[in-house]
Amino acid sequence: MVILALMTTIQRITVEYQRRMNTVLQYIETHLDEPLSLEMVAEVAMYSPYHFHRVFRTLMNEPLNEYINRRRLEKAAADLMHRNEILITDLALRYGFSSNSAFTRAFKKFYGVSPSIFRVQLPTKYSKIRIPKSKNGQPDFLFEKYLWSITNLKNWIDMNAQIMITQMPEMELAYVTAIGHTQVAEAYTTLLQWATPKGFMTLPTTKMVTVYHDSFKVTHPDKVRISAAMTVAKEVKEEGVTGRMQLRAGTCIKGSFEITLPEFEKAWSSLFIWMNEQGYKKADQHPFEIYHNDYRTHPEQKCVVDLYIPVAV
Q1: CATH class of the domain whose range is 68-120
Q2: Partner of 280 for a Cys bridge, out of 142, 144, 188, 311, CB 3.0 to 4.6 A?
Q3: CA angle 212, 257, 287 (to 5 degrees)
Q4: Residue ranges per domain, the chain?
Q5: Model pTM?
Q6: For strand 161-168 and strand 171-179, is the pairing parallel, antiparallel, or unpaired?
Q7: Who wins on pLDDT, 278 or 141?
Q8: Can you say whether the dihedral through the CA atoms of 242, 248, 253, 258 is positive or negative?
Q9: 115 burial class (0-12, 13-18, 19+ CB within 10 angstroms)?
């Protein structure tokens, strides 16, 4: 009985840590352009700075300052990807660096290239990259191979997707956080364990949704933050590790697919290429997926899914 009580207590404490971490991650994400000290963030979590530092490092596998610095650099990289008009100097100031040179040093240390070179080499700007030449003056083979890949993706999406511009309504979601792409399945298992006894899975309005808070182009796959989510009514409250979020209404590129699991990367890459080809710019909101079936019951193990990229209008 003592051991069982101890395990129950540990489980309750772990759930409370994870619940508060949901709040902390949302707070950090919306305040990256402001000063963020350990004391400030610990207050959001309602822990002492010393205790919070230990909890954060254990759950996130990196210290708070390192996490904040990484997220600022990744946000800056995302801005370089999607906002041609923004100056690198402005990015340095926006994300709290003391100077342009300090930002450039930190960015180069993290990504291996300077912000200006990163912007030029972006795959999403393939149409604006000048063709590099080899020493003999011939087009570089890797660039030819890259253009071949882009062409293939454009052809693939033409054959495998229905694309449209749509107005998405506001959506209320319950979610479980996954840190790293390998943790998504476990996050969905936890979400279903919470939702099934409540009868949410039998409601005809319930949809399963995956929200990508980070881009695989700028964040390591082991550190991407992904929400395993489902649509719920507004009155549904947070409980345990299951948090609540709201996806704002807005204009989205919608790509409808029927694809296998290994084809998701291809679907997303081709949809972003379509976005750039059509002259759209990604909005400051997270891409997401809405599923319309259980792929395990599909005769070809395919997902019937809509991919959404919020765009600026």
Answers
A1: mainly alpha
A2: 311
A3: 20
A4: 2-61, 68-120, 163-310
A5: 0.82
A6: unpaired
A7: 278
A8: positive
A9: buried
Q: What tokens does 267 get?
A: 């679907």
At residue 26, does pLDDT exceed 70? yes
pLDDT of residue 238: 87
What are 134-183's pLDDT values in tens digits?
444 443 434 344 444 777 777 888 888 999 999 999 999 999 999 998 99
State the architecture of 163-310 in CATH terms: Alpha-Beta Barrel (3.20)
Report the pLDDT value the prediction gives residue 240, as an integer from 0 to 100.
Answer: 84
